[in-house]
Amino acid sequence: MSQLGTGCEEVTTKPLVGIVGPCSAGKSVLARRLRAAGYEVREIRQEHSVTPTMWQRLTHPDVLIYLDVSMDVAAQREGLAAPSSWWVEEREFRLAHARQHCDFYLDTSALAPQEIFTLVREFLESWERRPTGGTESENGTLGHSLL
After folding, report:
1. Cα–Cα distance, 8 to 144 (Å, whole number)
2. For the CA atoms of the chain, what is the radius of gyration?
3. Which residues contact 35 (CB under 8 A, 6 or more apart)?
4. 22 neighbors 91 (Cβ within 8 angstroms)
5. Coil vs helix vs strand at 18
6. 51-76: b or e for each residue (b if 16 or more CB lie within 10 Å)?
7. Of 66, 97, 70, whose CA–CA distance to 83 is shortest?
8. Low-confidence ranges of the chain (pLDDT < 70)
9. What pLDDT shows up at residue 79?
10. How far apart are CA 57 and CA 41, in angstroms?
């Protein structure tokens, strides 16, 4: 993002990045790494809200990243024998709106934290270089997805 500085110079700033997704998808680790790389990041705990649009109401991110994870991998990452009983509600109701409107979707089930960071950083760098905000798809997202 760019904006005018105090004179005629152009000041370049990083976008405000929102990260959403189910528990154990890697949101916290990614948020820490992106902050260390100079990004302003909001880790949105949408999975804990019964208001599907909370991510929009509390944080108005320039870019919304959706990290996903399979139920089995999430249970393994949490040290559980089986997925949590509320998993389906979390994904189908609480996170559906954010997933529908994300700019970048990434399934982290088979990825290490460094791989997640690298893929998201590459997307953000390409997003920052876009001429006019990217090409919107039918549902209003930029349409980038890595499964």
Report:
1. 34
2. 16
3. 41
4. yes
5. strand
6. eeebbbeebebbbbbbbbbbbebbbe
7. 70
8. 1-12, 46-53, 55, 57, 84-91, 132-147
9. 79
10. 16
Residue with tokens 């105090």: 6
pTM: 0.76
- Residue 75 structure tokens: 């249970």
Closest CA to 64 of 108, 97, 109: 97
Question: Measured between alpha carbons, how far is 83 from 70 in angstroms, rounded to an integer?
Answer: 9
Round to whole Å and give the CA distance between 42 and 19. 6
Q: Say what the pLDDT of residue 86 is.
A: 64
Nearest partner of 103 among 32, 31, 15, judged by Cα: 15
Give me the long-range contacts of 129-137 (CB less than 8 A, separation at least 24): 134/103
pLDDT in tens, 30-68: 999 999 999 999 988 766 556 666 767 677 899 999 999
97, 88, 51, 98: CA torsion to nearest 10? -20
As a whole number of angstroms, the distance between CA 91 and CA 99 comes to 9
Q: Is 14 helix (H, G, I), strand (E, B) or coil?
A: coil
Q: How far is CA 71 from the centre of its chain?
A: 18
Q: Cα(63)–Cα(123) distance, rounded to whole angstroms?
A: 10
